[in-house]
Amino acid sequence: MDILVNGILLGLGYCLVGVGVSLILGVAKVFDLAYASYYTIAAYAVVTLIQYMGPAMPIGIIFLIAIGIAVGFSVVTHFFFILPVRKQGTTVMVMTIAIAMVIQELLIFKDGSEPIHLPSILKGTSVLFGVWTSNQKILVGGVTVAIMALLWLFFAKTKLGLAIRATADQPEAIQLSGGSIRNVCLASGMLAAVVAGIGGIALGPIYPPHPYAWLDLLIIAFAVIVLGGLGNIWGCLPAGLILGVSEVGFAIYVPMGGIIKRSVGLMIILLVLAFKPTGIMGVKGWEEEA
Questions:
Q1: Per the structure, how many domains does the chain have?
Q2: From CA 271, how far away is CA 176, in angstroms rounded?
Q3: CA nearest 262: which of 219, 218, 210, 227?
């Protein structure tokens, strides 16, 4: 039960990491390799605002500003770098990884290379199905479930959500109706950055952020979206759960598994690409529709 509970909570956090990448990939059909940096940007923004504003600013406002900063970086990245060359996949990947490394160096210049401390939103521990676990991990699980539910409502009930779905499934229909694929892609990038900002704030107290954290997050995100199915955000949930339970089991039962547990994600990427490239819920040939 310990493996199951901790694995599920870890997997829900992994889902939170992967869903934004999958959203951008599904709509714009590009790999935004700078996406993982938005998590660290939000976490660093929270710590900086707390340091300089202290009790003068409510923590809720600080969280909103931090998410807004992450969204701002996403808008700049998409508007000036990704969208102008969206059809050139290799160029987008090179540009976004360069952006991620620039952000990394700026964070090192600001606070050094050591991890920073992000205060927990919920302190203490609780018993969940007979297993003691931190309240912050339970919060991450609840936040992930809430975000997935809100995304479902957004895509099913709002005009923008329907436009994003249409662009992901049938981009030519958007063009024929006079809509702008460019604007929809930008909106999807902003929405993904909101998820990243929330994720950075929720996950930061558990996994202290540092300038190089985007590399780990990128591996997790790729493992989740490859296993779940490229371009399908709903596949991130089962994929994250499988990855989380696998990592916890690997860390417990394999000698030195806790040190090399990140290799589980890499092995999943290799196995899925070799034997089932579409993943759990992916659609073959989706990338050719852009």
A1: 1
A2: 39
A3: 219
Amino acid at 11: G
> 3-state SS of the chain: helix, strand, coil percent to 5?
75, 5, 25
How many angstroms separate the CA atoms of 22 and 20, rounded? 5
Q: What is the mean pLDDT of residues 155-170?
A: 87
Q: What is the pLDDT of residue 257?
A: 65
- Contacts (Cβ under 8 Å, ≥6 apart) of 194: 67, 70, 71
CATH code of 112's domain: 1.10.3470
For 143, the enclosing helix (H) or strand (E) is helix 135-157
Cβ atoms of 136 and 13 closer than 8 Å: no
**Tokens standing for residue 237:** 């949930």
Distance CA 210, CA 195 (A): 19
Domain that holds residue 239: 2-289
Cβ-in-10-Å burial (0-12, 13-18, 19+) of 105 comes to exposed
Q: Is the pLDDT of residue 94 over 50?
A: yes
